[in-house]
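Thread: "does anyone have the structure for this chain?"

Original post by V.I.:
We have the sequence but no experimental structure in hand. Need at least a predicted one for the grant figures.
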Amino acid sequence: MLLLTDWVLELLSMERTPFCAYTISALLLALLALLFRTLLQLGRSWHRYYVTCQRLRCFPEPPRRNWLLGHLGTVGVMSRGGEKGFIPGEEGLSLVSQTVATFSQAFVTWMGPFLPVLCLVHPDFLKPITTASVAIAPKDYLFYGFLKPWLGDGLLLSNGPKWVRHRRMLTPAFHFDILKPYVKIFSQSTDIMHAKWRQLVASGSTSLDMFGQISLMALDSLQKCVFGYNSNCQETPSDYIAAILELSSLVVRRQHRLLLHCDFLYRLSPDGRRFRRACDTVHRFTADVVQRRHQALSRLGREAWLKSKQGRTVDFIDILLLAKDEDGQDLSDEDIAAEADTFMFEGHDTTASGLSWVLYNLACHPEYQERCREEIKDLMRDKESEEVEWEDLSQMPFSTMCIKESLRLHPPVTAVSRRCTEDIKLPDGRVLPKGL
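Reply from O.Q.:
Generated one for you, tokens below.
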């Protein structure tokens, strides 16, 4: 160490005084300690990686593209886990279907050389994960973290006690008495979409972007049900709706670009700047609605405000404002905004995907499509109203079966990402290693 200290002093052209010698020696010792600690951490990480590789050898894996890229782009997967971690379009879905058909229980994919993902396919293999506590199988932040700046800490992204508290407080929002009046809103929004389709047919158009049209219809319905606000977004442009659609697209684009998984690089990228602008648009709209409802509640008082809502559809925001936990505590404005933004995202995306697949599958089976059409005609034949009402939903058994079968074949959420904190034993005796 003394020789090294003398060499540094000579290199820096410093006089060899006791103070300088002690200072340089201390700095060198700190540097060596930091280097030793870094090497120790690298050694531990490499050991964990080696152990994980050995434990994953009992699971099959598709042929890799190469050592560096792993399975990127070969099994329909472009990024690590998540609800939309697949190559978009027909090619990606075809690759996923082929892989799942070949490996019907579980298989391993590698996102690059060091990131393994264990994909569980069969329900018996999924059950230990889906029934495990949130402490054992929490959400994987690598994917869900991309949504955090947009959705905050709502039900989709929260964990532990906060998730339990919010889930309990939001349960009344899904009661039948709350949902029944929404059927009329759904019918009105669907009528607008049908009118647009009839205009396209009358103009001689032979094709349309059905998913885009259904997404707008779903967002139109949700905006009325969540905020009690009619933006006419199916007929006129809406900055708020455009921002939600852009955010949904940007999140998927980010998954497909591994370099942009780094928050620092993403903030500097054009997509990152677009993401921030769209987030600002969505958050301003939500905050404005929440603030105005809060002011109305404070001005009228809880009882008078509730009385003013009688005979009217209760909005999701109203339910959030009135929700209280077992200690009588309200949700904060930040929590209300996060749950509203989460509801808008999850509600429109999954609904549009599910409905698009239902229509696609019916188009592939014209005989079933005709049976559904005849069932609805029979149901509506003797009705005074031309709209489907809540009570009518239970009188459509064949249509309901077709919808459920479509959801089974093509679930709107294609994958759910979890990272286990403990080893989990699978039905055949194999073990899902901790950390995957």
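V.I.: this helps a lot. The CA atoms of residues 69 and 112 lie 4 Å apart.
O.Q.: and The domain at 160-409 is CATH 1.10.630.10 (Cytochrome p450).
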